[in-house]
Amino acid sequence: HTHTHTHWQGCHSAQACPRDQMSSKPGTYVTKAREFFNRDVRDAKGVSKQCHKGKVHCVKWNHTGSRLASVSTDGTAALYSVRSSSANGPLQKEIVFTEHTDVVDQCRWKPGSDQLLATASRDSTVKLWDVRAGSKSIQTVKTKGENINLAWSPNGNEIAVGNSNDVISFIDTRKFEVVNTKSNDVLVNEIEWNHSGELFLLTTGDGFVRVLDYPSLEPSGTPMRAHTGCTFCIEFDSKGRYFATGGADALVALWHATELICLRTIGHAEWPVRAMSFSFDGRLLATASEDTFICINFVETGELVHKIDTSDGTTAVAWHPTQLILAFSGEGGASGMISIFGYVSCLELYSAALPADTPRLFIKLTAFLFLALFVCRIPS
């Protein structure tokens, strides 16, 4: 892909962002978030661990956040448990999957599952792993071409995998065989279903997002212009309200997930945006690029909440599904490293007490006090 750095003005919206049950006091949320990231987080650059021998291309949390999966150019996938009280940091390697024979580009957990993980490799296979079965895969599907992108349907019944020839194969996970393929006449970077599973979206090299009806795979309207250069990545928030795209123009475009209109652009990066992740509450969006920082943006306004300084560009980011904990991986000098940002004192992983409904806040505060007493082991 050609990296361009241009400023794009095409997707600005004069419309206000639908509040969609957002807090009536967004300023309070942003203030509390900034206080948490700047004052309470233990390590400003995250706690890092050497996890692979090659560059990490993808990191993904399972449904409950008890495990983190990663894949790498070294041809392996790995699984980590998260142990907040460990002196060696939060990531404890559990399993290394070594059956792939080439670069592993993508991994996805089955929606709602803590056990089933799919990986896509340039060795022209998609493998399914059950963490209860150890390091041996439970299913393998041979595809045509080097696999570079992957998505899992919301109902868990289909996996889509795209290859370097821009052909997307659809795998029925109940039979674990390819049941359909779609060739494309344009470079396809990432693929994703919407939350209902009725639409299938592709980010493309010509700067568009193409939307297809599913399962017919017929175009649903005309392609949507997203970026002036290549559109690299796409990510839906967990609430189904928004999705975001990142492009070679160094911008992030925020879209209404059902109306399919661009609400605003976010322009805090200086280089092409290649990875992004929404927080569990859908209010923060972490975006990563070839810049030496990760931006944490407030979704409702697009304002910058926090920057995480990194030693090099970032290849992958993933928010924890229940807490303000961000996993990310870098390239270059940080090749093979995975970092966890969100530690607070006493080696505890804990979500910020941001404005929320009272029961949730009470539960979080109770959990924090309990862990502080029994894990921190404060001398009496």
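Second entry:
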Amino acid sequence: EMDTETPENLPWRENDAFALHPMSAPSFKPAQLAALEQFIRIVKDNPQVLHTPQLRFFKEYLESMNATIPSPPAPEPEPTPAHEPEVEMDTETPPAPEPKEEPESESESESDVALPEDVEIAFVENPAEEPELFMPDSETEVTEDMIDAAIAAKAEALEKQAAGDLGAALECFTRALMNNPKSTILLGNRGLCLLKMNRPLSAVKDGELAIRMNPDSPKGYKIRGTARMMLGQWEDAHRDLAQSNQLDFDEDVQEKLKLLGKKVARIHAIQALERRREQRQRVKEQKRKLKERKANQEKYRRMREEEMKREQEARAKQSHGMPGGMPDMSGMGGMPDMGGASEGSPNLGGMGGMDPDLMAALNDPTFMAALQDPTKLRELMKDPKYAPLLAKLQQMAGGMGGMGVWVGFEIHDLDCA
């Protein structure tokens, strides 16, 4: 339980921003609350910060409140000593295990997403072509006689419509429009008649013309919206009927908006699901490409390591030669007299019989390196300083009973003449 202390016992400070009057509620500045909220967020994200020396007072306070404090982090392993032998090049490091793909969480599963309720609204899925109607031109000059004729035709149309003769009513409304093409009311009347005749395509045209003639015509939006509803164009119908009711409220239009609102909400929910599905597909494809790229990089790395290993082995063989490289001839002073040498070959009986120039050449690093590299040896043969020595060495090798000097090739195979 929390320790209870009376305000009188607390160390109140007069100018402390957090000091509270014993009878008043806590009062904090917005900046202080923001800083506190940021601090709490940091502790939530990384509770290990509570083990830092700077926050020891806060940790002790939490422990006094019987709060559960996470264990401190384990100490980091000590670094590898520098004297440990390095891993050889041919030691293969096992590849890091591929991260397992996390299954979709339940919140992301489409089957768990509750779609808004759907409603059944009858509509014409494949409307048939409709005959063209006269479309009035608002620029036509209208006389008084034309207006009188339009009024008479409208009255006749309303009578025919009331009697159920919609075809005759349509003809009368059209005749009225011919006499008064500037009347949006007549356009609206004919559009309503077309809706009753189940001719939504023609009704859409009358509604659009009425809106062009008068952008604030509620009947124009009502006719076009109702016609689009009959065609199954739910979002467009909802937008038109909402505009119609905004200009002139109608209970019948409001009922249609309730039905269309459910349709539109469901459409938007399905579209949102589709966008999330496409997003997951894009992320999945990106992960696949990343995995493939890492696999190709790993394959190339292994191939390169194998190639470097083969090159290293080839250089090692070349540097050591066939029988282990050019023997050190500096200690040949103690060799017995090889009297079987052919005539004309140098006397190898001890150090005293060795040609001084040849003996000096055998202690020359450049000369000895050339003996182990055919390319360098051929270059050395062109040098007037070393060419005679190479000839003597070839003659000496020939006089050693076929023993020769091996450096991955026989020196008598080279033309030292």
